[in-house]
Write a structure and sequence with these properties.
Domain Cytochrome c assembly protein (chain A): 76-167, 268-397
Largest interface: A-B, 53 and 60 residues
Number of strands of chain B: 20
Number of strands of chain A: 5
Number of domains of chain A: 2
Keywords (chain A): Cytochrome c-type biogenesis, Membrane, Transmembrane, Transmembrane helix
Number of helices of chain A: 11
Oligomer: heterodimer
Largest sheet of chain A: 3 strands, antiparallel
Structural class of chain B: alpha+beta
GO cellular component, one term (chain A): plasma membrane
Strand order of the largest sheet of chain B: 1-20-19-3-2
Shape of chain B: elongated
Helix content of chain B: 25-40%
InterPro entries (chain A): Cyt_c_assembly, Cyt_c_biogenesis_CcsA, Cyt_c_biogenesis_CcsA/CcmC
Membrane topology (chain A): Multi-pass membrane protein
Chain lengths: 400, 519
């Protein structure tokens, strides 16, 4: 059963990947004739959207099988949540597709879905038993709805990103193209991290350090080769030749897994930069400039509305899932409906951010470029809540 | 500057009106430009209290301040940033220390020290965070009141026939020459086509007004009402008795009074269960019984329930939550040895939590009397026995062993972890440890919260408002035929692209050629 479940996950990954490639095929090429280019994009896009739909069905089967095997909804650790966020984003895109019949979003949503699923797979995939606090049907309801809202915000981010590529990506100089390039580099860091983790997992890399925290000897397991090791750490066990770290962290970084988290971050940054460098060497211009060429014929008014629409649809869902249901569950599990736990606080911050976005857009007339940057900013807030809060700031929610 | 508020159409408008209430013609010359139309249409060009002209009182100034959406957005952004800063280091509620003034500096250095000094370590309960949230609340009330009344009036008294200038100035607008003989046919085709799209269509001579989804305009205000109820309820929680939070520890087999109530809770059994072969807790459970006193003060069991995480006990207004469970030394099993024969005379159980001096135990034919008890034994500077705390960390006991008929017997010391055989060499009897008895102690959070139904209702109203506002939109199309020309103008509060596409679809059915957007 577990084998079948895993093949469905692999199938999902491949379908999303092929869907992305198919979308890309439709957009690239040197057709100068707009009509011919349009026809080509439509033909490939139709294939791509079907691949995406089959992919979502595959992932739904994966989720259902995981529920059957584990007895709980798969949103209880980092792998499960990020995979579900990926599912929610693709689902949100398909819904938006049937509302607006627009293919172009898919060319960017699907690669991001591939990145998210790859990123999810970098975390331990085994089914973990639920701690008492998570044993509730609210796990399925609260986390699912919050993720669906975030999936729609992800689609809004993608639409905003394309809008920016269209409007400012073509500029040679300036602050905005620079920041746009930065956003793309950060996305590449996710890709880089997923690739490095995948390779390390495939060869079964592991190195164990022993070091001291507050006078107690502890073990720290590295799943990636140590660029930077724990303070005064000793290698106790290693699966391959690369076991000695290049550097050791200074003494003040002494948290339980602080050194390995820092190591992971450094790998993500460097692999992302390396990828970027390779791409630059191949295309010999800014990445945003290349992507601008791909999207320059699009209808930017439609993109602007798509981005807003995704947020407008997602906002009530996020309010219900991430705040109201969260409060009801918190009251049942902890006796308090609001604890000012970091994850909760950042859910509130996300909500405040998007409510500011909506007021600025609806009452202050912030449309177009400013609105698109806000959609990008909102996604950054979501990523902070997902990654920084889980790994750097511990709290009641850090189960991963 | 004296503004003329009488429109060319003859309608008298209140001071501050931007678009004529009757025909929609712009009243101020500087507003006549195309770019400002969106702003004017937002509240139908109606005068709002906050824009009152003339001399303003203090209240008017405060009203204007809080009625500004810009101020509201600033308040939201400030709250957002401040709330984020508060998560850099854990709040005082989450730290494992009773001395935050030292903790933050020790753990996080200089930055931590400032975090504590600036009051950020307990900021969500601070007066200034409270003030910030209150200002958002005030802004919510005033922004809504300032807008909803004029908006309601304007939408209720809409005129079908609008000034041509008003139609031309809409963001979505179209005009074309038509054949005057086809006019009637065209207008009735348009009516039918728009009705098919679920518009409510009104006609007045050669003018049409098609409208749908007006109720979605009330969405934001309903949402704000929900938020206000929510914030007010959060304030009510400060009223004594509305929200009680307390904590009680109950050992297995014991009964404790539930703080702030007349009820008692008995812990019949509590335990933790682990997953098979894994170091993960599966379950924390306390089998509890609630006792209530009758008129004579006698306790009777009134409610019986197992408390688990996610399954609190509910009785009347009170809720008990499984918050903590720790095993504790509950008793010591001791055996009395006859040193001469080396024979065991028997054993007895000392329950540390229910210990009284002079308590007697029967061991075979012997009586053992407790003389003194030190739960956390130590010697002071005069070598006198003292106890450091009431926790049984290092229990020490002094017993007297009496043989049948004896009035006073020999004294025997028992100190955990010490072998005292050498000191009491002359004694006939010795008391040795036979075993430890552990009991589980459950930490139960005690809650009563009368505000919950209000919070729930507030949240529900808020959601209804959000759904109304975001899943529907208010669309209006004005059509007017004048001098062989058809003028079309349309307005929506959002989703302009979809509106334009809808107009194209409407036009397709009638012989009109309108191309607003690419499909």
């Amino acid at each position: 059963m577990e084998k079948i479940m895993e093949s469905f996950l692999l199938g999902t990954f491949l379908l999303y990947l092929f869907s992305s490639i198919s979308f890309m095929m439709g957009l690239t090429g040197k057709n100068t004739d707009a009509e011919v280019a349009n026809k080509k994009a439509n033909r490939w896009g139709k294939i791509a959207i079907w691949l995406a739909i089959i992919g979502v069905v595959f992932q739904a089967v994966f989720i259902i099988m995981r529920v059957i095997i584990s007895g709980h909804f798969p949103t209880s650790n980092m792998f499960e949540f990020v995979a579900f966020l990926c599912f929610a984003s693709v689902l949100a895109y398909i819904v938006i597709y049937f509302m607006y019949r627009t293919l172009i979003l898919g060319a960017f949503v699907m690669p991001i879905a591939v990145i998210l699923l790859g990123y999810a797979s970098a975390f331990p995939k085994d089914i973990q038993p639920l701690i008492p606090a998570l044993q509730s049907y609210w796990l399925g309801i609260h986390v699912t709805l919050a993720a669906l809202g975030q999936g729609l915000f992800t689609v809004a981010f993608v639409a905003g990103l394309i809008y920016l590529l269209h409007r400012v990506g073509g500029e040679e100089k300036g602050r905005q193209p620079f920041y746009l390039e930065m956003v793309l580099v950060i996305l590449l860091m996710f890709v880089g991290f997923s690739m490095v983790s995948f390779i390390a997992q495939a060869v079964g890399y592991q190195t164990t350090f022993t070091h001291m925290i507050d006078g107690n000897q502890v073990e720290q397991v590295y799943k990636l080769p140590p660029l930077i090791g724990p303070y005064k750490g000793q290698v106790s066990n290693s699966s391959s030749g690369w076991k000695e770290p290049l550097f050791n962290v200074p003494s003040w970084i002494e948290g339980e897994k602080a050194a390995s988290k820092l190591n992971t971050t450094i790998w993500a940054i460097f692999s992302g930069l390396l990828l970027y460098l390779i791409i630059r060497l191949i295309i010999r211009k800014r990445l945003s400039l290349l992507l601008h060429r791909v999207v320059k014929n699009l209808n930017h008014e439609l993109l602007d509305e798509l981005s807003y629409r995704a947020i407008a649809i997602g906002f009530p869902i996020f309010t219900l899932g991430a705040l109201i249901f969260a409060m009801i569950w918190a009251h049942e599990a902890w006796g308090r409906f609001w604890n000012w736990d970091p994850k909760e606080t950042w859910a509130l911050i996300t909500w405040l951010f998007y409510s500011a976005y909506l007021h600025l857009r609806l009452s202050k007339g912030w449309l177009g470029i400013r609105s698109a940057w806000l959609a990008v900013g909102g996604f950054v807030v979501i990523m902070i809540n997902l990654i920084v809060i889980n790994f750097v700031i511990a709290g009641l929610h850090s189960y991963a | 500057m004296i503004e003329n508020t009488k429109c060319q159409c003859g309608h008298n408008n209140p001071l501050g009106t931007i678009l004529c209430e009757y025909c929609g013609r712009p009243l101020q010359q500087d507003n006549a430009e195309q770019s400002s139309i969106d702003k004017e249409m937002r509240y139908e060009g109606k005068a709002r209290w906050s824009q009152k002209a003339g001399k303003k009182s203090i209240i008017d100034h405060i009203w204007s301040f809080f009625s500004s959406v810009k101020i509201a957005i600033y308040l939201i952004l400030i709250t957002l940033v401040v709330a984020g800063i508060g998560t850099i280091f854990p709040q005082e509620d989450f730290i494992n220390s009773t001395t935050p003034e030292v903790y933050y500096q020790e753990q996080y250095g200089k930055l931590g020290e400032w975090f504590y000094r600036l009051g950020l370590s307990d900021m969500y309960d601070s007066w200034w965070f409270f003030a910030l949230l209150s200002m958002i609340g005030i802004s919510l009330v005033i922004c809504s009141l300032d807008r909803i009344i004029p908006l309601y009036k304007a939408l209720k008294n809409q005129k079908v026939m609008k000034d041509i200038q008003f139609i031309e100035r809409q963001r979505v607008t179209h005009q074309q020459e038509i054949d005057p003989t086809q006019k009637e046919q065209l207008l009735s085709d348009l009516v039918a086509a728009m009705k098919r799209k679920n518009f409510h269509v009104k006609r007045e001579k050669d003018a049409l007004l098609a409208e749908k989804g007006r109720f979605s305009r009330w969405g934001p205000y309903i949402n704000h009402v929900g938020l206000i109820i929510f914030l007010l309820t959060a304030l009510l929680r400060w009223v004594p008795g509305w929200a009680i939070e307390d904590f009680v520890w109950v050992r297995e087999g014991e009964m404790q009074k539930i703080p702030t109530s007349n009820y008692y809770v008995k812990n019949e059994r509590s335990f933790a269960e682990m997953y098979l072969n894994q170091n993960v807790v599966k379950k924390y459970q306390t089998d509890a019984v609630i006792y209530a006193p009758d008129q004579n003060g006698n306790l009777h069991p009134v409610h019986r329930q197992s408390i688990l995480v996610n399954h609190p006990l509910k009785y009347k207004d009170y809720q008990l939550f499984q918050s903590s469970l720790i095993p504790e030394l509950g008793g010591i099993r001791l055996k009395v040895m006859d040193r001469k024969t080396g024979q065991e005379k028997g054993a007895f159980l000392v329950k540390l939590t229910q210990l009284a001096v002079n308590q007697q135990y029967r061991v075979g034919d012997l009586r053992v009397r407790l003389l003194e008890y030190y739960p956390d034994f130590a010697l002071d500077e005069n070598q006198q026995p003292i106890t450091k705390s009431q926790e049984p960390n290092r229990p020490a006991l002094i017993f007297e062993v009496l043989e049948p008929g004896q009035q006073s017997g020999e004294k025997i010391w028992v100190i955990s972890g010490e072998n005292l055989d050498q000191i009491t060499k002359d004694n006939r009897f010795a008391i040795d440890l036979a075993g430890l008895v552990m009991v589980n102690k459950s930490g139960l959070m005690v809650r009563t919260d009368k505000s919950l139904p209000f919070l729930f209702v507030g949240g529900l109203i808020c959601l209804i408002g959000l759904a109304m506002g975001f899943y529907w939109q208010h669309r209006r199309i004005w059509i007017r035929v004048k001098e062989n020309k058809l003028y079309l103008g349309a307005h929506t509060n959002k989703n302009w692209y979809s509106l334009q596409r809808e107009i194209q679809q409407v036009a397709k059915g009638c012989p009109l050629d309108i191309q607003l957007v690419r499909d």
